Each structure stands twice: as C-alpha cells, then as structure tokens.
Amino acid sequence: MNRIMNNTLCRILIALMVWTPFQMAQAGMISTEQVASTAQHGDRTALLNMLSRADVASQLQVLGIDPAQAKDRVQAMSDQEIAALANRLESLPAGASSGGAVLLIIIIAVAIWWYMGKPMP
Prior knowledge:
By secondary structure, the chain is an all-alpha fold. α2 packs antiparallel against α4 and α2 crosses α5. It has a domain of 54 residues.
C-alpha cells in the first residue's frame, strides 16, 4: 500500500513539473533618474488615490474645498512639493486617537477591582 502511494505521488510530481511553466528572468542596470521618476510618480499617484476616496472627498467638502480642484492642484505641484507632502502624510498617525481605548481599559480595571473587592456571599 505504501509503495503504491509513493509511486502515485512521484507520478503526480513529475506531471506537475512537466506542466509548470518556466520563465526566464532578466536583470539589467537602471539609472538613478528612472528610480527617482518612478518614486515621484508613485507619490503623485498615491496622493491622487487618497483624494479619490469617498471619506477624504467628503471631509474636503466639509472644509469648503472642491475635491476636483484639490486634484488639479496636486497635478500642478512640483515633484519636491509632492515628495514633501507624501512624507508628511506618511509620518502622521493613522486611525483615531487612543483616548477611548485608554478610558475603556481604566473602566474595565476599576470594574475588576470593584468585583474582586466585594465579599462573596
């Protein structure tokens, strides 16, 4: 029984190796300008994608800024301005403040302390 399973497994592995497509990898040198332009284009694309989000667009409208006008302004920014804005956005904390979580932990700790301090009936 064990020999039959080994033979079957070997045949399946051989068949998979034959059907697996082989791809040749190519490597080459790229210039610094190509890397820099790709990074700058990626920052601009990330900012435009962020402005396309519904929650960001609604917050811009609350602040009195037209989202389409904000996208046009991002398109008109220089590469240095885009890089500075992208770095600033990356350094900001994500999500809401943790004040609610701290308050919840304090309430749970007080509830446990109060429960443990009560005499058992």
